[in-house]
Amino acid sequence: MLSSFRTFILLTIILGGGYPLLVTCFAQSFWPNQANGSLVKNRQGQVIASLLIGQSFQSPFYLHGRPSFSNYDPNAAGHSNWPLMLPQRRTLASSIIASSSVKKQPPAMLTYSGSGVDPDIPIPAAVMQFPRISKSCDISQATLKQILSHQRKSGLLGPEIVNVVSFNLALKPVCHAESKSS
């Protein structure tokens, strides 16, 4: 009995304290930005976003992300688990199509992401929004494609994607109309 209690205490110290400490030190040493949540700070040093959590961008000046079941609240993150034929799912898709000038939307823009706070969208979903952004920001679509070429990344198991937050941060300095209205 005493031997199993010692083993329990030893393993608790090693696996409950030592291993997490080792992994944290390793991550902080080699990937400090990612280990701290990929936080984005403004010029004053205030945290304004995380590249790991999607945000709601409603302004026509910005790239819009996927719909969020949790309204982009990471504490309430999760999927709706709505089946394909559920009327609410069709209502969501219909309302997105009705509110957009583009009637043929990529599927990613008509469905909730698995986590509800997905920060990335597929490249076609981004390019589809270029006419609206170009008109609102008074910049060419070529400029938007250039920004996209610097922001795109390979999807883990799927298509190439773009992080909406990082794209919008890169877009902000060149968006002429947005800076005039601020």
From TrEMBL:
The highest taxon in the source lineage is Bacteria
Q: What is this protein called?
A: K+-transporting ATPase ATPase C chain
One Pfam family linked to the record = KdpC
Can you quote a single GO CC term?
A: membrane
Report whether Signal shows up as a keyword of the record: no
| InterPro entries referenced in this protein's UniProt entry, alphabetically | KdpC (IPR003820)
A Gene Ontology molecular function term for this protein is:
P-type potassium transmembrane transporter activity
The answer to whether UniProt assigns keyword Transmembrane to this entry is: yes
PANTHER family linked to this entry:
POTASSIUM-TRANSPORTING ATPASE C CHAIN, POTASSIUM-TRANSPORTING ATPASE KDPC SUBUNIT
**Species in which this protein is naturally found:** Celerinatantimonas diazotrophica
Sorted alphabetically, which keywords does the UniProt record give? ATP-binding, Cell membrane, Ion transport, Membrane, Nucleotide-binding, Potassium, Potassium transport, Transmembrane, Transmembrane helix, Transport
